[in-house]
Amino acid sequence: MPDVRFEPIIGLEVHAELLTRSKMFCGCEVVDSTQAEPNTAVCEICTGMPGTLPVINQKAVEYALRVALALHCRILPTSLFARKNYFYPDLPKGYQISQYELPLAVDGWLEVAMPEGERRVRIRRVHLEEDTGKLFHRNGYSLVDYNRSGVPLLEIVSEPDLRSPAEARAYALGLRSLLRYLEVNSGDMEKGVIRFEANVSLRAAGSAKMGTRTEIKNLNSFRSLSRSIEYEIARQEQILRSGGEVTQETMGWDEEREVTLSQRSKEEAHDYRYFPEPDLPPLYIDPQWIETVRQQIPELPEAKKARYVKAYNLTPYSAGLLASDRSMAEFFESALHSAPEVPPDKLANWITGEVFGLLNQASLEIAQTQLEPAALARLVHLVESGKINAPSAKIVLQRMFHSGGDPQSLVHEMGLSILRDRHSIERLVRQALESNPDQLESYLAGRQSLFRWFFGQVMSASQGRADPSLLQEVLQAALDEMASGQPKKPNEGEKT
Fold first, then answer.
1. pLDDT at position 270, please?
2. 452 with 468: CB under 8 angstroms?
3. Residue 494 in this model has a pLDDT that exceeds 50
4. For residue 235, how many other CB atoms are within 10 A of its CB?
5. Which among 28, 369, 379, 386 could bridge 407 via Cys, Cβ 3.0 to 4.6 Å?
6. Which of 483, 418, 415 is nearest to 451 (CA)?
């Protein structure tokens, strides 16, 4: 198909560990599987010993309801747990307890900020299951840690509505933000508490016929998600253009080589031999409970973004950045309420610019810094009232970010207040003119553009502290005096 233009069809399955204190079907504590000693948070149930009976974790169901409602899903009055049978060393029972025919919720959607604007991505289903253990491969042998086995896992399956790696990334970011807002998942991808699986296929542009899909498993970063989909689209297109056929299979992502690799042929539902879990009753959801959970859902990112645009006149981009993270939105609003005299857009610019930059450099969340919302608001007020300039404020902000402190005290301590003493500025101007005779001669000969150069020299000598308006006035007066060759008389009442 050398002349055919292909369209990618992408759907995502997202697995998110729920922030419950105990596991999905037993009383074992949920621990950080990257920090805890291996196999210390396990019992007979989560390791699949014969004769044990699972019990449904009510808090896990509540968290799942939060997510389903926030995704505008229809909650099914009755859902069933099933046994999903497959063998893998990190699955001690030989099956995973999951939901299949009757999931917890269906038919939802998520509004996502796509590169070309807002778009709705449909959600096919939201269901509960248990996580597996964790394998560690060492020099020809493998070890298994069952601490993660049985941790409550929420699976969110989208419809194949995504059309590019950028759209897949935007959807994943939006979903992660939502889960963090609802406080059901930490979003810490380095610890594997949220993982993505991408289903990718190609079809001829304009065709309704779907192509053969492949599934890329266990992607735990946005970069891996984007890069793996990009590679898989290119791989499938090369196969189709050369006259071959794409094979339905499960792929893994090699992070170092940045290629997808075949792991096994893609399973269908019947391959897992689903059947109802005989040790668990049907899960009935009381409508009153649904309404109680609904009332507990906080203002979500899209609603918060719209409010910021309307109430504070922020740009949609700036409002979206602030609203995408709950802790950052709370920081912004706390700072704003502590100093109503500070323009909201100015405060937002400092947060989305300088503060975000410091957070990215340090790989920290805002709560992990020493920066207080009210202190940032006072710093911005110092800038807006002309008591300190922006370059000096950035220096103060770095100190506050790492060590805290009051901005006014730090400005005084670091000698960064705006220099408004006329005699000091006159001295700096005189030094700049005397130190650069060639440039002064060129200016006096008619090269007026050197005014800005002298301005920059004095500003640099004052470490950026000179009041720009006063500096411009003093510098112009000094140059005019030299141009005329006559001393300039002081203004009436001005000290000589």
1. 65
2. no
3. no
4. 17
5. 379
6. 483
Q: Could you give the CA distance from residue 224 to residue 351 in angstroms, rounded to a whole number?
A: 28
Count of C-beta atoms within a 10 Å radius of residue 450: 19
Return the number of other C-beta atoms located less than 10 Å from residue 208's C-beta: 6
| Burial state string for 424-439 with b = 16 or more CB within 10 A and e = fewer than 16 | ebbebbeebbeebeeb
DSSP codes, 318-353: HHHHHHTSHHHHHHHHHHHHH-TTS-HHHHHHHIII
- Give 465 or 380, the one with higher predicted confidence: 380
Any long-range contacts for 481-485 (C-beta under 8 Å, 24+ apart)?
Answer: 482/433, 482/440, 482/444, 483/444
Sheet holding 275-276, edge to edge: 95-98, 82-85, 275-276
Contact between residue 40 and residue 147 where contact means Cβ atoms under 8 Å apart = yes
Whole-number pLDDT of residue 342 = 94
Q: How many CB atoms lie within 10 A of CB 263?
A: 14
Sign of the torsion formed by the C-alpha atoms of 309, 311, 314 and 318: negative
Q: How far from the centroid of its chain's Cα atoms is residue 1's Cα? A: 39
Break the chain into its structural domains and give their ranges. 6-293, 299-414, 422-484
Averaged pLDDT score across all residues of the chain: 90
Strands 249-254 and 214-219: parallel
Quick one: pLDDT at residue 461? Answer: 76
Q: Which of 31-40, 120-129, 139-148, 429-438 has the lowest mean pLDDT?
A: 429-438
Which residue in the block uniquely carries the two structure tokens 């991808």?
A: 189
Q: Half-sphere exposure of residue 23, counting CA atoms within 13 Å on the CB side?
A: 28
113-139: b (≥16 Cβ within 10 Å) or e: bbeeeebebebbbbbbbbbbbbeeeee
The CATH label, of 1.10.3720.10, 3.30.420.40, 3.30.750.24, 1.10.10.410, for the domain at 422-484 is: 1.10.10.410
User: What integer pLDDT is reported at residue 253 of this predicted model?
Assistant: 94
Helix, strand or coil, per DSSP, at residue 448:
coil
The Cα–Cα gap between 152 and 30 comes to 9
| The model's pTM | 0.83
